[in-house]
């Protein structure tokens, strides 16, 4: 059961490992402008606004999440093959919108499948999800090494085996029992999402992903402009994920010593420092390595407490929709807006200006978190219980 659950995480995040560090370089090599690159990269996040909510609702209503995951894996892979037609900017935009609409449906559904399959053994979740980080690191290293030897234009061909891995692993997922959502859940979704603490939580994560727009869109181009090779770029991306893994291994200790609000404010502050260092001290390798280690804060710590936050506020009746809203409003809307803003900053100024924009977004996020973030109900009732689960929250 452990390997059947871990397999899809490995291949799903391996695809991210091939896309995020190198896709912007591929688009640059295809002759697209910085604004066009920002728009195309934004589609990876943009469809998260709609796709997880649609598929999460279907999963909650039908209980057929495994079938939906398989459907998304197959159809998403088929749409990606449109890249090989070299359709130009607008054609590629449609291809990426179609591909990511189905691809972005997979993870929120699969998170619920994994947690429900584990049942009372949720402490094993971290070990299962850890393989997503492994997949990311392996793909980044292998793709980066190959791209040192072959032209960047061959990147789509390098990703085809990963799509095949996703499709095959989707059919190894344990089948569900087809449970349906109860007709009368406790508490309406509207009451939950309008709770002041939940509003602050979503605003914090929205701004966090806006600040990541420059990172996910132009970090590789920024490094290439400063003389880094493709393998070095890939290794720096991998370093961030390794730091994230180390964070998850220590998260339970942090959760015992600090509150959700303290962890969030500390992580946001470190994220702001990270963007400033990348913007201004890129040429100093030791500083850049330190900045990439801060990925443990800017993604790891904040995502760990966010998963628990959703469980605490949304409960099992709205868990799927809560996960979908988290993905859509933060990674989707925030990530897409951040990509576009960074595109305008790079086009008008420089890649460094885009990272400064991310630092400014973090200032606003710190203020909102300071004033509005409160613990989820589960933590208010049992702080020790929360502390025991936090280290198992996520990776990548």
From TrEMBL:
Q: List the GO cellular component terms.
A: plasma membrane
Tell me where on the tree of life, at the top rank, the source sits.
Bacteria
Pfam families per record? MFS_1_like (PF12832)
Q: Which residues cross the membrane?
A: 7-26, 32-56, 68-85, 91-110, 130-150, 156-175, 196-219, 231-251, 284-302, 323-341, 353-373
* Record field: compositional bias (Low complexity): 384-396
> Where does it primarily localize?
membrane
Q: How does it sit in the membrane?
A: Multi-pass membrane protein
GO MF annotation: an example = lactose:proton symporter activity
Keyword list, A-Z? Cell inner membrane, Cell membrane, Membrane, Transmembrane, Transmembrane helix, Transport
Region feature Disordered, mapped onto this chain: 375-396
Residues in Major facilitator superfamily associated domain copies = 2-355
Show the InterPro entries listed in the entry.
Answer: HcaT-like, MFS_assoc_dom, MFS_trans_sf
Q: Where in the cell is it found?
A: Cell inner membrane
Q: PANTHER family of this UniProt entry?
A: 3-PHENYLPROPIONIC ACID TRANSPORTER-RELATED, BLL5896 PROTEIN
**What's the protein name?**
MFS transporter
Specify the species. Marinobacter salinus
Taxonomic classification, please? Bacteria, Pseudomonadati, Pseudomonadota, Gammaproteobacteria, Pseudomonadales
